[in-house]
Amino acid sequence: MAFWLDLMFGNPIGLLSMIVIFSTIGIISYLMWMFYTKSADPEN
């Protein structure tokens, strides 16, 4: 486990890849949330 943590966060390339992965997950979840709220039936 320490090897993977050092590989991901020990150098700038690993840190950038982690930032890209987490940003992509955030953007996808935001788009899914927007799609869910826009496709919901209106209250009235």
UniProtKB/TrEMBL annotation:
Q: Which InterPro entries match?
A: DUF3149
Task: State one Pfam family annotation.
Answer: DUF3149
Which chain regions cross the lipid bilayer? 12-36
What keywords would UniProt list here?
Answer: Membrane, Transmembrane, Transmembrane helix
Q: What's the superkingdom here?
A: Bacteria
Q: Is Membrane one of the keywords UniProt gives this record?
A: yes
Q: What is this protein called?
A: DUF3149 domain-containing protein
